Structure formats: structure tokens, C-alpha cells
User: What shape does this take?
Amino acid sequence: MTSPLSPLPRAAVAALLFVAAIGVAAQQPAAHHRPHAQHKPYKSRARAPARPAPPLSPEEQARIEFDRIVYEHEKTRINFDRPQPLLRAVVVLRVTLDPQDRWHAEVFRDNPEQPEMTRVALETVEHLPAPAELSPPTLERLHTEGLIEAWLFQNNGRFALKSLAKPQRGL
Assistant: This one.
């Protein structure tokens, strides 16, 4: 049986059906397209440059300068890693300088069950050299009001000073 359409009209019908299908598809919005939505411009995922850290308060500056002296002169006792989750002891001292630039420490907080840790913290301050490396504002602060710093003791007896310590490890 022969078809009433010759091969030429069959091709024309197929082309018309193809064009019609494309036109219908173009008129329907894509599933992910949100009509009337504003398209946001592309944002780079690169991070913006870090903002400079805010200036340190005189108290923070004094603590950091003091801590650096302790770290320099007590290298064998310092824990340079992140402090363990449950510390062996925390000792808090108030550190001052007398008029002759001798170091003094007063215990603010300690662990009565770990008196040897308090002794280590006090000895650390007593054995520091004269404060030649400190800035004039820090010297002034240490002569007048002093500073408060915490010794964070690990189970092995090593310590970190709170102002320079890395973040404590989780449990």
C-alpha cells in the first residue's frame, strides 16, 4: 500500500513537527527556573582579605610581653601543643615588679590538691631575668598594678600561659 503523501511532504511535516516541539519547549519554564526572580551576580568564593586585628589593650599587651619572656626562659617546661581537655591544674597569679625591678607573684587561684603546680608557677616568675625586654608602658603597668596570668598545666607537668596558649582540645 502506498502512502497518500509523497516523500517530500513527509519531510516537510516532520520538520514542522520538530519546529513546533521546539517552540513549545521554549515557552515552558525550566523546572529550576523561578519566574520573576532577580538573578544575583556571580560571587567569587575567594575570601576577602583578613581585617587587621584590633589593637591590644595595655593589659593584653603587657600579658603578651610577659608571656614571651616566660616562654623564652622556661622552654623545657612549656607545652607548645594544644592544652589537653581536662587540665591537671590551673594556677592564676598576679605578677608585679618592685621598684628595684624584681619580680613578685601573688596567688589568685590554685588547686589545693596540686601544690607542686603552684610552686612551679611561682618559681617561674622568681627565676625570670630583669625585665630589660619590656616596653615602657608594660614596665609602668607592672610597677603600678601588675598583671594577671593563668598557668595551664598538663598531666606531664608542662604548662602554657593562657594569653599565648593554643585553643584547648575537645573531649
